[in-house]
């Protein structure tokens, strides 16, 4: 076990895979300088510019090159800097990467990991603070993951590179400095959730940075005698239906909390599935359908803070 940051865990995982397989390459803007969050720090010096490849400022070109590399037998890691910028390359993601294996009868596969940092980025306003996980969950042919801890960023990045299909890999923009213990040998199965704490009164499901705020709310509620079972979904697609449904069947109540906008968010899919299969009562808690403001007072309107989560749980249980 070693103590490291979320960013350092990603560097360590990627370096391990690049040492083991020369077909793993990285391409994107500023990757040679270590990336804007330090998620490639020192890697060009270690592996050379032919494997840590700086690109022009064109998301469509970067993603398109990644698709071509993957089809030619490489295992590219494609850096989009932030998920908001990836929208400029969506034809390559939606119509090429996601559909190739299906349209050509499995003759071609796209073992590509596309890193798209999500979430509210402090004082970065509407075009740099979005969470698009539900968009990609709706897209057949891709895997969607949201690691929420240094350990998961290590283990899930390695699992994503081994997946064999295109993976939309969504790290949160404000988690890079978070520290935690990382076990080099701990493996994760994509699609497998994690129970953060056991409880009996209500099941709460979240992921990414919002999970940590939910954990704070659960501490508040525990002090008031409310026992919440908190599940870190980790993988958005495929998602761990079995773990969630078993918990909901036991507690009889489900609350899904996510940073993304509540309307048409992935929480709706989880809530509907739980209601259909277990008959449990369901609630969702997400951001209002507004752009994230630049001014702190406006930005705060899009955040789901621990006090609001705890209050929503108390209201639900009444």
Describe the structure using short key phrases:
alpha/beta, five-stranded mixed sheet, Rossmann fold, 318 residues, 2 domains, seven-stranded mixed sheet
Quick recap of the structure?
This protein has 318 residues and is of the alpha/beta class. It has helices at residues 6-20, 43-47, 59-71, 83-86, 90-97, 100-103, 133-137, 150-162, 208-223, 241-251, 266-278, 296-299, 306-317, and strands spanning 2-5, 24-28, 52-54, 75-79, 113-115, 143-145, 167-169, 179-182, 194-197, 202-206, 228-232, 235-237, 253-261, 281-287. It has 13 helices and 14 strands.
CATH class of the largest domain: Alpha Beta
Give the CATH topology of the largest domain: Rossmann fold
Query: Based on the structure given, which CATH architecture of the largest domain is correct?
Result: 3-Layer(aba) Sandwich
The total strand number stands at 14
Q: Which structural class is indicated by helix and strand composition?
A: alpha/beta
Question: What kind of sheet is the major sheet?
Answer: 7 strands, mixed
Task: Give the spatial strand order of the biggest sheet.
Answer: 3-2-4-5-7-6-12
Number of domains: 2
What is the element string, with H for helices and E for strands?
Answer: EHEHEHEHHHEHEHEEEEHEEHEHEHH
What share of residues are in beta strands? 15-25%
- Tell me the helix content: 25-40%
**CATH homologous superfamily classification of the largest domain:** Thiamin diphosphate (ThDP)-binding fold, Pyr/PP domains
> In whole angstroms, how far apart are the ends?
43 Å
């Amino acid at each position: 076990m070693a103590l490291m940051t979320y960013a350092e865990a990603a560097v360590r995982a990627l370096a391990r895979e690049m040492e083991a397989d020369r077909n793993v390459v990285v391409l994107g803007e500023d990757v040679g300088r270590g990336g804007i969050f330090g998620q490639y720090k020192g890697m060009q010096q270690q592996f050379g510019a032919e494997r840590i490849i700086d690109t022009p400022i064109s998301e469509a070109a970067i993603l398109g090159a990644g698709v071509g590399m993957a089809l030619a037998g490489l295992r590219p890691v494609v850096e989009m800097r932030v998920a908001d910028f990836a929208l400029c390359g969506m034809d390559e993601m939606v119509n090429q990467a996601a559909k190739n294996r299906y349209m050509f009868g499995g003759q071609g596969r796209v073992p590509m990991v596309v890193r798209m940092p999500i979430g509210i980025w402090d004082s970065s306003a509407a075009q740099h603070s979005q969470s698009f996980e539900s968009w990609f969950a709706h897209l057949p042919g891709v895997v969607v993951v949201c690691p929420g801890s240094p350990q998961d960023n290590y283990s899930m990045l390695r699992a994503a590179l081994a997946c064999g299909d295109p993976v939309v890999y969504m790290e949160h923009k404000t988690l890079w400095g978070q520290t935690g213990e990382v076990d080099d040998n701990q493996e994760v199965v994509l699609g497998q959730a994690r129970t953060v704490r056991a409880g009996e009164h209500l099941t709460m499901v979240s992921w990414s940075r919002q999970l940590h705020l939910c954990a704070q709310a659960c501490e508040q509620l525990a002090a008031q005698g409310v026992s919440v079972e908190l599940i870190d979904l980790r993988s958005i697609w495929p998602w761990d239906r079995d773990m969630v449904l078993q918990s909901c069947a036991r507690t009889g109540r489900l609350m899904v909390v996510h940073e993304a906008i509540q309307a048409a968010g992935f929480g709706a899919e989880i809530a509907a599935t739980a209601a259909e299969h277990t008959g449990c009562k369901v609630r969702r808690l997400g951001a209002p359908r507004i752009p994230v403001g630049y001014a702190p007072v406006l930005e705060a309107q899009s955040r789901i803070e621990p006090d609001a989560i705890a209050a929503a749980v108390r209201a639900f249980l009444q």
